Amino acid sequence: MANQFELRGHHIEVHYTIGGNPGFTALTYKDEFISRAFKPGDIHTDHTALGSLVSVRLVERSTDNYTVFAFLLPEIEVPPDQTGDFTTVGIHQEYKGKGSVSIPYSPLSIPTTWHPFVMHGTAKNVVVAL
User: What superkingdom heads the lineage (predicted)?
Assistant: First the structure.
């Protein structure tokens, strides 16, 4: 099973390694405005029938005004010393809750918007530092 992934799309670059030391960076995210590094404890993973939904909180303006980045990571078998290419979906979730300055709360307001986009990735097996 592949454990290191590089994804690109929508002006975003992501590098993600599974199974390393919890004190080391496991995921990096870079776009035109944000560059962030995340340790395993900062990464949320939900296992689904389609693969793993991996998400991180990119920007937190307040407890009810934040941005999440997520991507669907399919299970990929890659022979040693080879790489596998795949295409998947990335999502930006903009959450602006009650009382947000940019969207005043009303029963008609929609506090969350999702922006899906295509990402192209490369997967491989690597030995990780424990």
Answer: Bacteria
Tell me what pLDDT residue 105 has: 52
Q: Distance between CA 17 and CA 19 in Å, rounded?
A: 7
**Domains held by the chain: number:** 1
Flag whether 99 is in a domain: yes
Whole-number pLDDT of residue 107: 53
Which tokens is 16 given? 């993600």
Q: What share of the chain is helix, strand, coil (3-state, %, to 5)?
A: 0, 55, 40
**42 phi and psi angles, rounded to 5 deg:** -95, 0
Task: Indicate the pLDDT class of residue 102, thresholds 50, 70 and 90.
Answer: low
Residue 130 located in a structural domain: no
